[in-house]
Design a protein that fits this description.
It contains eleven helices and 19 strands. By secondary structure, it is of the alpha/beta class. Strand 15 and strand 16 form a beta hairpin.
């Protein structure tokens, strides 16, 4: 039985308030405008009989005498194989000019997957990007952010991962995107031929604010459905800072008491409830979550990256158009290095990072005008090769080739006894002179 109320007692921004009973948090409602049009809203909070709803569009055209019908269900997304290759907005409506998606409807925002059916992450998600695959492996069912600042090519990085991953399906959730960014995602997928396994939920900067909040839930509900069908699914979300700012704006409109820097006290739970959707399901598929978090002013202590760091399993730092090898960390890489990948992987990666750290000191000595030793000269030569072959985000090679390239780089700059590695390893893998 649907509940219909014909009196709106308050309107503020995109929020409306009605006197209603027996409604649930997140419940969907339809607002019947006096001009014959309808729009949707969802329940944000209730105080006794006063129910506050977030209207999906702006409140223009809504009057206090309009009817509000509660639908006894939360927001849903339609999922089927026909969804692959489609583009939708935060409300799940097609924006690609195609027909309505046919399939089963699933509620969004449900609790994360049953822990008893989870398995320990132990499989590699290939990206063909050496700075990820070799030094900070992305592991199936991992949740990890890309910490960045505005202006860095984080969207381009997500596009490359979407093109090169070995996942069965890729779900892209864009929040607060400029139109040119949105268009770039489309053109990239079409050019790379990855559109057939990609679903996009897009919230542009000009779209209603509530759709920004719905995008992650839409993307993750779709991923959960595919995962239970046996698909290994990669969810790429950009930008979680836009998501958190949307929460902040709505909480201010609702006169909630702010916490750190104006963000609500629920920020940690709001972020964690999305990140915790990452799962490797026993006997079925998986969900791996990779997001972008732009840090205002590059401040890692800002509430958004600060809370994110407690939830996720590491981070990739994007700095100067490259993934920073010193600020980045994958806490699950030990599950696959040497177990899923080659036995020389761990020792090679550690040695290359150690020598690159030494090369940074050699660059400092060079910059201060000190006389450089032969060892410093070798380190400098190595650093340029390392940056060009390993840190360059344009490099697209499988991890096996990247490991071989790492050994080749060491051999071009050093002698086997100079890299402080086990002799058995260098004897086996050091490139032989032709």
């Amino acid at each position: 039985m649907r509940k219909v109320y014909d009196r709106i007692v308050d309107m503020r921004g995109n929020l409306i308030t009605v006197n209603a009973e027996k409604v649930g948090l997140g419940e969907l409602a339809r607002v019947h405008k006096s001009n014959g049009q309808t729009t949707y809203a969802s329940v944000l909070r209730f105080d006794e009989t006063k129910v506050t709803l977030q209207v999906f569009e702006n409140t223009r055209g809504i009057s206090t005498g309009d009817k509000v019908t509660f639908l006894n269900r939360e927001m849903q997304v339609v999922v089927s194989d026909a969804l692959l290759g489609r583009r939708l907005n935060g409300s799940g409506e097609p924006i690609d000019g195609g027909p309505e998606v046919e399939g089963e409807s699933y509620e969004i925002g449900k609790p994360s997957f049953n822990p008893t059916n989870r398995v320990i992450p132990r499989d590699l998600v290939r990206t063909n990007i050496p700075m990820i695959d070799v030094f900070n492996c992305l592991v199936k069912s991992q949740k990890i952010p890309i910490f960045s600042v505005s202006g860095e090519p984080y969207n381009e990085l997500l596009m490359r991962i979407a093109n090169q991953t070995d996942a069965d399906a890729v779900i892209i959730g864009g929040m607060g995107l400029r139109f040119d960014d949105y268009q770039a995602f489309i053109e990239n997928a079409e050019k790379a031929g990855s559109m057939d396994k990609t679903v996009m939920f897009i919230h542009k900067a000009t779209d209603p604010l509530v759709e920004c909040l719905l995008v992650p839930d839409m993307a993750l509900a779709t991923a959960e459905t595919y995962a239970t069908q046996g698909k290994n699914t990669l969810v790429l979300l950009t930008d979680m800072t836009a998501f958190a700012d949307a929460i902040k704006e709505i909480s201010i409109t609702m006169d909630q008491i702010p916490s750190n820097r104006g963000y609500p006290g629920s920020l940690y739970s709001d972020l964690a409830s999305r990140y915790e959707k990452a799962v490797d399901i026993d006997g079925s598929g998986s969900i791996t979550v990779l997001t972008v978090t732009t840090m205002p002013g590059g401040d890692v202590t800002h509430p958004i990256p600060d809370n994110t760091g407690y939830i996720t399993e590491g981070q990739f730092y994007l700095h100067g158009g490259r993934i920073d090898p010193f600020g980045s960390l994958s806490r699950l890489k030990q599950q696959v290095i040497g177990a899923v990948t080659r036995k020389d992987h761990g020792d090679l990666a550690n040695t290359m990072i150690r020598l690159y750290a030494d090369s940074k000191k050699a660059r400092e000595r060079q910059g201060m005008g000190f006389k450089l030793s032969k060892w410093d000269q070798k380190l400098l030569s190595y650093s340029f090769l390392f940056e060009d072959r390993m840190m360059n985000l344009e490099v697209n090679i499988p991890i096996e080739e990247a490991l071989d390239l790492g050994w080749k780089t060491l051999a071009e700059c050093f002698e086997p006894d100079e890299v402080a590695m086990k002799k058995a390893l260098t004897d086996e893998h050091w490139p032989k002179e032709k």
